[in-house]
Amino acid sequence: MNFYIMPDTKQEFEVEISRCREIFEKKTRDYGTSWRILRLPSLTDQIFIKANRIRSIQESGISKVGDGVEPEFVAMVNYAVMALIQQELGADGNQELPIEEALALYDKHITRTVTLMLDKNHDYGEAWRMMRVSSMVDLILMKLRRIKQIEDNHGHTIISEGVEGGYMDIINYSIFCLIRFTEGTNN
After folding, report:
1. What angle do CA 47, 49, 53 make, to 5 degrees?
2. Which residues contact 99 (CB under 8 A, 6 or more apart)?
3. 3-state secondary structure string, 35-85?
4. pLDDT of 100-109, one tens digit each?
């Protein structure tokens, strides 16, 4: 008998988030919270660099630096969390955060983001599982263009969500891609 086992998206998310958080913690121990000096547009551009590199490698099939694309998805998660923290605290505040505070803020924003993912995942019926990784990268790039436009408009929108929703979507799409890699699907 063949039984289809429904994946546990929340558990898969927790595994990938744990991997991202571990890297965030280790880099914070190495560098402190030096990223606190960055303004939101700079963090947006860092995410763009990562997403653009992934797309370039997807299109050419060649990575001359040697690193694969998975670390770039992890980096996009962590930069997006940094952006959410910066949005909350502002770039002008205390530049150096104690490690415990930085991790607590990381966890706070990840918890909110996972809640959003679970709500959307329910409504959309896990459609991401049938999407191509390349399409999710394109969606991340589109979200970044939207965020840049909102930043250029000094945060003002008429009808659209603000940058926070965009950063949260970038985290979720990046985690979806990491899950797909874990499953052996990287198209």
Report:
1. 120
2. 25, 28, 29
3. HHHCCHHHHHHHHHHHHHHHHHHHHHCCCCCCCCCHHHHHHHHHHHHHHHH
4. 999 999 999 9
